[in-house]
Input
Amino acid sequence: MFVRTATTYDLSAMAGLHVAHLPIGFFPRLGTGFVARWQAAFLDSPHAIGLVAIKRSDDASAETVVGFLVGTTDRRAFRRELLRRHRGALIRHGLFALVARPRLLATFLRCRATTYAARLWRGRSGTPTAQPLEREEPTGELTAVAVDPGTRGAGVGLVEIYLDRCTSLGVSWVELVTATEPDSAVRFYEHTGWTWLHRSRTRDGVPVAHFGRCLATTDRA
Ligand SMILES: CC(C)(COP(=O)(O)OP(=O)(O)OC[C@H]1O[C@@H](n2cnc3c(N)ncnc32)[C@H](O)[C@@H]1OP(=O)(O)O)[C@@H](O)C(=O)NCCC(=O)NCCS
Output
């Protein structure tokens, strides 16, 4: 098994893993087509990192994507770029996905349409619920990571490689949000040196934990 930078050829496998194993939030419910378009923005950005974990068949003739990670090295810059360069394509993909899913469309119109429309129209990213004020210096954000259940715990190391890349790019603080339900990744992050920041809920009411990690020697507590 090894980890490499993701390419556009990996997007459909990455989106499949995301929808299957990270079903929290609105995006995965829009399906793999939308998620792949959203993940493509990470592969295309100087402010983001996309990684895949690859397993080779015994005779080395075939490779399978068994995990992926997308994250940013400067989440503010990435959000600005996402809206500037990918807004139109994401709206188009999102609308197609919603039209094909009438029940989801009804939920969207009831709960999110106003917020999303205002955010996209203004070209600003908005601030997630209960998020503390942004730090002035660039903050990395581990946006999504998932490993195929059959490969978990085998030391794939996607998160460590993402953190190493952030460190080498001079990023000194990284955050993430993860669900707190049983079997969630909370124990993984506690075990691997992340610090609890606070708890909140998603717009759908799912309880989530916010974690942070200092990557520099300077004291930022
Ligand atoms: C979180 C996740 C990506 C971790 O990937 P992984 O490939 O299993 O992690 P690794 O094998 O690299 O594990 C690294 C270390 O964490 C430990 N670890 C892995 N899962 C753990 C868990 N659930 N609880 C405690 N420790 C855990 C490993 O034992 C290993 O420790 P070691 O280095 O001391 O041996 C994977 O469990 C997953 O896909 N979960 C479902 C999706 C998810 O919740 N993603 C997070 C959303 S932000």
In short: The CA atoms of residues 104 and 110 lie 10 Å apart. The radius of gyration is 17 Å.
